[in-house]
Amino acid sequence: MAQPVQVGVKQPSAYLHIQCILLDPHGYKWTTKLTLISVGEFEEQVGPTFRVENTPMSVFSHMFPATIVESIVKETNRYANQEMGDEKFAKWQPIDSNEFNAYLGFNILMGLVRLPELEDYWKNDPYFNYPPISDKISRTRFRHISQFMHFVDNDVLPTRGEVGYDRLGKIKPIITGIADAMQAAYSPGKEVSVDEAMIPFQGRSSLKQFLPLKPIKRGIKVWSLADSNNGYIHWFDVYTGKGSGTEKDAGLGESVVLNLTSHLQDKNHHVYCDNFFSSPKLFDELLQRKIYACGTIRQNRKGFPEDLKGKGKKDEKRMGLIERLATYTNSNTCIHRGDMAVCQSGQLVTTSWKDNKVVTVLSSNVQPGEVDTCKRKQKNGTHMQLSCPVAVVEYVTYKRGVDRNDQLRTYYLVRLKSRKFY
After folding, report:
1. How far apart are CA 309 and CA 326, in angstroms?
2. Residue 29: helix, strand or coil by DSSP?
3. Which of 45, 103, 232, 254 is at 20 to 30 A from 341, Cα to Cα?
């Protein structure tokens, strides 16, 4: 470690500054001598890319285009024929686009008006019977459409072990079509966030994941890119397991972010992500694509500045740079809420800040050492103003895009039990 040449302390809630240069073994030249960084202007048009009309169906058709509906209708009728055989299929009433759109509408209504069981919508009991559904479609017809709904031709789909096999093969055309439509329908704002979303699923599937710390603990994991200001999902990718992406070359978290942001290049977007994804290598790669980033970071990431690491388990809640300040000055300096330490390597800035615990943020879109204020509640019930790095403020503000979408989905979520994962 290089020896410090100058020490400066400003109290209270100190911004502690030690001028030294640290040569990281991974090629990053971290220094506590801070300089301004350059952040490009975001000048893209934000909002829907189509003329918004008054009818909900016109908006829905941009997210779920007629080509997708026609494809589902075709494959559903084909699958019904394959399962029933020609004799029974002759008695089957083929579904058409209008009926399938109505079927989607009934599912949306079931999310708005929830009953304990599916059969309750057709009960004769007036406390359960729901005429907007029961008067339009019979229970048997609804079940048949659900049973035979299909998205690809099974006869041409590669099976497990064959060349071209895909775990998502049975729903791939629909996933791709919806993702492309959602991307084309809306241009996101400057701030976007990357995170994982969970689709609840209790059945048997190789796609099912278990995340004990998430509100939805079992289900299918979906990597998502959302507009931080409204939660609109601009792009998504279903996680199919280890080795399914490009993580062999880049690491899973890095490859996810690069994949989800591939269409945002050269637009000066700001991406916010948590410590599962953040790393100096990723943020450097994003900068080359003219995408700025901000996110919490783990101390064991390659390229993390050594002088911001704690020494052992007892010091994990302490900032290494501030901790050593007492040694440099032979003082009894201790860490208080609001203290922070900053290291910089070119455009990358690593900021450690003491709140109840130490929070460490890596950024390429915030000026190093820039400080704002925040409120914190004390033990006696009063509130205090606390100095807080702008990098932390922006991360807390803009990281919640995918979480907001999860919240909105729960309001109208339809949970129809099925033996199929799709």
Report:
1. 16
2. strand
3. 254
Q: Cα(155)–Cα(71) distance, rounded to whole angstroms?
A: 16
Q: Which of 405, 402, 406 is nearest to 192 (CA)?
A: 402
Distance from chain centroid for Cα 21: 35
* pTM attached to this predicted model: 0.86
Query: Which of 42, 22, 41 has its CA nearest to residue 348?
Result: 22
Q: Is the dihedral of CA 237, 240, 246, 248 positive or negative?
A: positive
pLDDT digits (tens), the chain, 422 positions: 333 323 333 333 444 444 455 555 567 889 888 999 999 999 999 999 988 777 888 888 898 999 999 999 999 999 998 888 777 777 788 999 999 999 999 999 998 898 888 899 999 888 888 999 999 999 999 999 998 999 999 888 888 888 888 889 899 999 999 999 999 999 999 999 999 998 888 878 888 888 887 778 888 999 999 999 999 999 999 998 876 555 456 789 999 999 999 999 999 999 999 999 999 999 999 999 999 999 999 988 999 988 787 655 444 445 565 555 444 444 445 577 888 889 999 999 999 988 888 899 999 999 998 999 888 888 888 888 888 999 999 999 999 999 999 888 888 877 676 666 66
CB 279 within 8 A of CB 258: no
Inter-residue contact 352 to 340 (CB < 8 Å): yes
β-bridge pairing 270-273 and 292-296: parallel
List of E strands, 304-402:
340-345, 348-354, 358-363, 371-377, 383-389
